[in-house]
Design a protein that fits this description.
The protein has about 200 residues and is α/β, with parallel strands linked by helices. Helices cover about 45% and strands about 15% of the residues. It has 5 helices and 8 strands. The strands form 2 sheets. It has a 6-stranded mixed beta sheet, covered by helices on one side. The longest helix has about 45 residues.
């Protein structure tokens, strides 16, 4: 009788041990999940403020010696900070608005500007649906980039009396170069509309 009782007790202890292990595993997984859920917004903010200059410096140093002399952009103190809206309404010069029209055009304190070296897809008079979709994506991307801080360098006056500018972002990158790298712009002057071919 004793061996049966001992076997039952041993089985009960094994079940209790397994239950304790599963219970511990459950609480460990739950704790990790809660920690991840809590940390996710902070990680997203950290990624948004990542030092892209350091990443570019690494990429440049990894290239062959022929291009290793290219310096990574330096972080700069932006002239302008804060959210920047999408343009709407008229009399923008009189209202001294600051807003984005599309991926290469905007207003700064009532002064209309256009980026000097890039051309983005048209939104208001596109040749095809893909051009309009890509144009909206370029506009929204430029808005997000500039909302983190930017500096406008004025380079004269172009067509339609718009001030030609270079936009330097808070992390030192050129906004036009970012849009080019992401396929949301082409160099200006260009040879046509690549979005509707």
């Amino acid at each position: 009788m004793k061996p049966i009782r001992a076997a039952r007790q041993l089985r009960a202890e094994e079940r209790a041990g397994e239950k304790t292990r599963l219970n511990g595993l459950f609480w460990s997984v739950l704790g990790c999940g809660c920690a991840l859920a809590f940390a996710a917004p902070f990680a997203a903010d950290r990624i948004a403020r990542m030092d892209f200059a350091a990443v570019q410096s690494f990429v440049v140093s990894s290239r062959p010696a022929a291009v290793a002399h290219v310096a990574a952009p330096q972080t700069v103190a932006p002239q302008h900070r804060g959210p920047i809206g999408i343009c709407s309404g008229g009399h923008r010069a009189e209202r001294r608005v600051t807003c984005i029209v599309d991926g290469d055009t905007g207003w700064q304190d009532g002064e209309k500007w256009r980026t000097e070296a890039i051309d983005t897809p048209e939104i208001s008079h596109p040749e095809c649906a893909l051009e309009q979709r890509t144009g909206i994506e370029a506009r929204n991307r430029l808005q997000a980039l500039m909302s983190r801080g930017y500096t406008l360098t004025r380079n004269g006056v172009g067509n339609y009396g718009r001030t030609l500018v270079t936009i330097t972002l808070a992390d030192g990158r050129d906004a036009g170069d970012v849009l080019l790298a992401e396929g949301l712009a082409q160099r200006w002057p260009n040879s046509g509309n690549p979005w509707c071919r």
